[in-house]
Specification:
The complex is a heterodimer of chains A (about 325) and B (about 300). Chain A is an alpha/beta fold and about 325 residues long. Chain A contains 12 helices and 14 strands. In chain A, about 40% of the residues lie in helices and about 25% in strands. Classes of the chains: A alpha/beta (about 325), B mainly alpha (about 300). Bound molecules: adenosine-5'-diphosphate and magnesium ion.
């Protein structure tokens, strides 16, 4: 395994005059589970598409498994596995036929097709159902099959674009189970995107992406550490006054969300007693939480991931309208 | 669609974390390492073959399509053929109308099936499967060639079903007839599929695609003389008829079938007149070559188009 498994320098992609990826750079080591976290429209899929040679970068450089994604497309393709955000199975074929087709397209040695298929299908728990048409599969089963297919040719790097989106919690956690198992069994690097905060926690390192840029990159623990502050939520008799008092006495900026006053403060545990001692507004309840990736996202972008999604949805609608104007996609 | 989780999946989903640690990893089979070889002509051939094979598998599973695409040619043959028989009896020199239009109907059936075959590439795009093929470490031309050959094969199988009806229109069987008809059908199917795939590179919506295909293929079919002899046509129609590529598939097909019929020279002259360019009689071989050459050109354009796309 060449090290690093993925190396990216100042990668950019523009669609017309809209810059979807604005110069990202990072390296992923062999064997790592690396996550891209960001709201819809952040540019995660566009980045993945460039790394797996589906989209040509506007500028910048990227190497995957030691090969340049523009100059050595075929070599990159031989060494990567892909699970797209949108399904790409042939529903009319059986699971087995889908995998065989994949093995043929990738030129897997004939005598290894069967044993490899058995291994990957058993891993995702679909071996017994291998003969059924994929049309009869549930969403979760299809996603598991796509993962198995992505692994059919023993890729060095597996790209997973939102592998758990829209799945039930049970399937989500089993997909995480496979990722752990893969890490142990095969020499494989995993690059995944997600917009679920809780999942990003499972990655070795994560890059937080927003508006086409990487705003932070580190291990989840280090990122949270760097936020420094804990989050306090208090329920009070008068939220307005509480916010005012917090500002005057402690110089803290608080907001009301979901029926409670919420603010960030360093060393929350030590702050709570002071809060009770010095506030005039009666406090009914208090809860303290360690920084989450939500807070990390907030501290780097100034908005929550959910707000970011809403504003990007507006952008997308505009883009869709423009796209409908043009005849060709 | 209802969720039907596997018992095994249930067992391993309780805990997202360390697989293998506590969870009884159900007798996980040994790791099988495979290797993807660098690209070579052999891998390209394998890719063409599997894409071709997929079309056959899908055709075989799609029984409905086999039946529905028989409706139109059967209507032409037996309803139109029998209905118009009364009007035309005088001018066909004793040849039954359904026998006369049989070669044309063999061509239509192939044309429309080939059109549907080509549409499958649009469906593949819609359902994402095209991407799976496009990111494989093989040339896109292999995918396109496999697709066109697959579509052509499927369409000519469909044509074979109609060939089975030869007895019903009083065309005697012979080996040369069957082989000849199949070869011509394969050729026509290839060219029409190549045409469809070429169009599909640009038109990505299934409705627009079918619309455009109907708009182009239906007039081509009518003008080709599949349903009438191309001898004494009004001038404007004669010109269009000579420009229409389908003419050069229909005429060889009709010649082939008529050669197997026991009909008068007079009837043959009226019903199957030779195609002429400014008075020059175009040899059948050249007609066949024209269809083939057009097919190859369109395949070439389709490959260029698919290579250019993202
Ligand atoms: N083919 C395209 N043409 C125009 N705009 C695009 C295209 N693909 C993506 N975009 C735009 O680029 C931005 C990033 O999209 P994407 O990479 O899909 O984000 P993510 O995967 O993080 O949700 C979005 O605003 C999207 O509308
Ligand atoms: Mg995406």
């Amino acid at each position: 395994m060449p090290n690093p498994a993925i190396s990216v320098k100042d990668l950019r992609k523009s669609f017309g005059d809209f810059e979807a990826v604005k110069g990202v750079g990072f390296e992923v080591d062999g064997g790592e589970v690396f996550g891209f976290l960001g709201p819809n429209g952040a540019g995660k899929t566009t980045t993945i598409n460039m790394l797996c040679t589906l989209t040509k970068p506007t500028s910048g450089q990227a190497e995957v498994a030691g090969y340049d994604v523009v100059a050595a497309k075929d070599d990159v393709r031989r060494h990567i596995g892909l699970v797209f955000q949108d399904p790409t199975l042939d529903g009319y074929l059986s699971a087995e036929q889908n995998l065989r087709l994949h093995a043929e397209l990738y030129g897997v040695e004939k005598h290894l097709v069967k044993p490899r298929m058995e291994q990957v299908l058993k891993m995702v728990g679909l071996w017994e159902r291998r003969g059924s048409q994929v049309l009869t599969y549930s969403g979760g089963m299809r996603r598991r099959l796509e993962i198995a297919r992505g692994l059919m040719h023993s890729p060095r790097v597996l790209f997973l674009d939102e592998p758990t989106i829209g799945l039930d919690p049970q399937t989500r956690s089993s997909i995480w189970g496979y990722i752990r198992q893969l890490q142990q069994q095969e020499e494989i690097t995993i690059f995944m995107t997600t917009h679920y905060m809780d999942e990003a926690e499972f990655c070795g390192r994560i890059a937080i992406m927003d508006g086409g840029e990487i705003v932070a990159l580190d291990t989840p623990a280090a990122l949270k550490e760097a936020v420094g502050a804990d989050r306090l939520r208090i329920e009070t008799a008068d939220d307005e006054r509480a916010i005012g008092e917090l500002g005057e006495r402690f110089g803290l900026e608080a907001t009301v969300s979901e029926g409670a006053v919420s603010f960030a403060v360093a060393d929350g545990e030590e702050f709570v007693p002071r809060l009770f001692a010095e506030m005039n507004v009666p406090i009914k309840a208090v809860s303290l939480s360690r920084p989450t990736l939500d807070d990390v996202f907030m501290s780097h972008t100034g908005s929550t991931i959910r707000d970011a999604e809403e504003s990007s949805a507006k952008n997308r609608n505009r883009a869709a309208l423009q796209a409908m104007g043009g005849a060709r996609r | 669609m209802s969720e039907r989780p596997e018992p095994r999946a249930m067992a391993s989903t309780t805990e997202p974390l360390p697989a293998g640690a506590g969870a009884p990893a159900p007798a996980s089979p040994p790791t099988v390492e495979v290797r993807v070889p660098p690209r070579s002509w052999r891998s390209e051939v394998r890719a063409v073959k599997i894409v071709w094979h997929r079309e056959l598998i899908r055709f075989q599973k799609d029984r409905m399509r086999i039946v529905t695409s028989l409706v139109q040619p059967l209507l032409f043959l037996f309803v139109l053929g029998a209905g118009l028989q009364q009007l035309s009896a005088a001018s066909t020199h004793g040849v039954e109308l359904k026998t006369f239009i049989y070669p044309g109907v063999l061509c239509i059936s192939v044309m429309f099936t080939a059109m549907f075959s080509a549409a499958s590439i649009v469906w593949d795009r819609e359902f994402g499967f095209l991407r799976e093929m496009m990111v494989a470490p093989v040339r896109r031309s292999s995918i396109v060639v496999g697709k066109v050959l697959g579509g052509a094969t499927v369409a000519s199988f469909q044509g074979l079903i109609l060939l089975a009806l030869a007895w019903a229109v009083h065309v005697p069987y012979s080996l040369t007839l069957v082989v000849g008809v199949f070869a011509l059908q394969l050729l026509l199917a290839f060219s029409i599929t190549a045409f469809g795939v070429m169009i599909a590179a640009r038109i990505t919506q299934i409705q627009s695609f079918m619309g455009v295909m109907q708009m182009i293929v239906t007039p081509m079919f009518f003008i080709s003389g599949a349903l009438f002899p191309s001898g004494d046509l009004p001038n404007w129609l004669a010109v269009l008829n000579r420009l229409d590529p389908i003419t050069y598939a229909v005429t060889p097909m009709r010649t082939l079938i008529f050669n197997h019929l026991d009909i008068s020279a007079e009837a043959n002259k009226v019903l199957n007149p030779p195609i002429t360019w400014f008075g020059w009689e175009v040899p059948i071989a050249l007609q066949i070559f024209t269809v083939f050459a057009l097919g190859m050109i369109m395949l070439g354009i389709a490959i260029v188009e698919f290579n250019a796309g993202d």
